[in-house]
Specification:
Blueprint (H helix, E strand, L loop, with lengths): L3 H23 L12 H6 L3 E3 L2 E3 L14 E4 L9 E4 L4 E6 L3 E6 L1 E3 L8 E10 L7 H6 L21 E7 L2 E8 L10 E2 L4 E2 L2 H10 L5 E5 L2 H10 L19
Length: 249
């Protein structure tokens, strides 16, 4: 014969576990992304509204966690605040003090991104920048001719939420670090464009890197080795960044 008192205690204990489990589940971030590589990642890459534009959260179940922004050890001659882009690695490093860097995954263009290497500076910055395709882009993708006069900033704009414009001397190099309307291309080489980041990441980098920040673009493992072995990039390209102006793309 069972003891009614013990049965009642077991029942109440079971309810307590159930309620405790519900409370634990309810405390988890509710951003509509599952599974989470980590709650911190879900918060950093969840849906957001920026200057009136709705940026959707990334579906982290389809993205390699290694493509997400993270702090990492970094050895090299570059001073804190330098942006180092490794094209073959598809990664961008924002150098910090103490041998550390913030690492961002990037997508690179098969043409524009491969035509630029060496040192520059951020000559100007733009939020939700306007975009206009170059003549070479229109030649490769004739459908871009519809935007020859320019495309206003927005979630469908290829430059994404932010653009950092690279200058040498007082001249715009026409090379950009920018967001994207195609997050699935991050970590890859795609048909057109410069260096693209997740919109969440370009906003983060935009907020950290002021106008005048030095940028180094490395196109090969050998070139990266030369930079790291021989010291910082030449300082000539880090002077006279010029006014905040230039082409749209």
């Amino acid at each position: 014969m069972t003891n009614p008192l013990l049965d009642r205690r077991a029942f109440l204990f079971g309810i307590g576990l159930t309620l405790e489990g519900c409370a634990a589940r309810q405390s988890a971030p509710q951003v509509g992304l599952w599974p989470f590589p980590g709650f911190a990642d879900a918060g950093r890459y969840g849906p957001m509204v920026d200057d009136g534009h709705s940026i959707p959260g990334l579906d982290l179940s389809t993205i390699d966690p290694d493509l997400l922004r993270q702090e990492t050890p970094f050895a090299g001659p570059y001073r804190p605040g330098t942006i180092v882009v490794s094209v073959p690695e598809r990664r961008l490093y924002f150098v910090q003090a103490g041998g550390r860097a913030l690492r961002y995954a990037v997508g690179v263009g098969r043409s524009e991104a491969l035509d630029f290497h060496g040192a520059a500076v951020i000559g100007r910055k733009a939020q939700w920048p306007r975009w206009a395709p170059t003549a070479s882009m229109i030649a490769r993708m004739p459908e871009y001719a519809a935007y020859a006069g320019g495309m206003s900033g927005g979630i469908d704009n290829p430059l994404g939420a932010r653009a950092l414009y690279l200058y040498r001397g007082n001249r715009d190099t026409d090379f950009r670090l920018h967001g994207t309307n195609e997050p699935e291309t991050i970590g890859q080489a795609v048909s057109s464009g410069c260096i693209r980041l997740f919109n969440h990441d370009i906003i983060d980098l935009y907020n950290r890197a002021p106008v005048g920040s030095p940028v180094v673009v490395l196109q090969s493992d050998a070139e990266a080795g030369n930079y790291f072995d021989d010291g910082p990039p030449p300082t000539d390209a880090l002077r006279d960044i010029g006014p905040e102006r230039g082409p749209e793309y």
